[in-house]
Amino acid sequence: MNILGVIPARYASTRFPGKPLADILGKPMIMRVYERAKMSEALSGLVVATDDARIYDCVVNADGHAVMTDSSLPNGTARCEQALRICGGDYDAVINIQGDEPLLDPVMIDEVAGLLENDCCATLCREIHGDAGNPNAVKVVMTLDGYALYFSRSVIPYKRNASDLPVYEHIGIYGYRTEFLREYVSLSDTPLSMAESLEQLRILEHGRRIRVGIIRSEGKSIGVDTPEDLQRVREILNA
User: Fold this and answer.
1) Is 152's pLDDT higher than 80?
2) Sign of the Cα pseudo-torsion (56, 22, 105, 217, in order)
3) Distance CA 66, CA 57 (A)
4) CA-CA distance, 223 to 236, in Å (whole number)?
5) What pLDDT does residue 218 have?
6) How many domains in the chain?
7) pTM as predicted
8) CA distance 237 to 139
9) Residue among 210, 115, 208 at smallest CA distance from 170
10) Cα(72)–Cα(57) distance, rounded to whole angstroms?
11) Phi-psi bin for 18: left (phi > 0), alpha (psi -120 to 50), beta?
12) Residue 219 has what pLDDT?
């Protein structure tokens, strides 16, 4: 399968402006992510999709591949679709790689790619051990055959009668068959996706399916949402 990896990257983050260029032991975060993603065996191409010249220049000057996308695009998925059109090529699928995961395990990309062999949309999750209450850690519940029922910032399921039932954290990496990605960006916003601020809910509310794989890799994938998260990543790499 011919797969394009896309790393959406915006400078104007509301919680952490300039996050993609944050320094991590002498290297911008976006390049940490790019270099990790490049280790994937599944990708035929890799590109950073940004709306900011500073990020574009950072990637290109480090011999990476970047494209400039429209600043008015509503989310990272739309940025991936536009990047696909800009890059051209006969790609069967696109994998949306989060630009704030500098400890990304490239095996995660390969796992999502494997799921796309039989499904048009796929993502990953891992079991949470410890406190699941952080709203920045998105939770997911699934059908018995591995398709998403719901994603939430709240803890799901509520374990009234099954204390040993696992809680799964959604890992924010998405794979889309090309035709599905083009369809998805045309779907209208939906009440639950806007209420939770989770764009993947738009897929479920429109009656489509998302295959969810339980992660097998052991990498310490940490999303950087705050300066405190950034410091934690620095400490891990420094160790």
Assistant:
1) yes
2) negative
3) 8
4) 13
5) 58
6) 1
7) 0.92
8) 27
9) 210
10) 20
11) left
12) 54
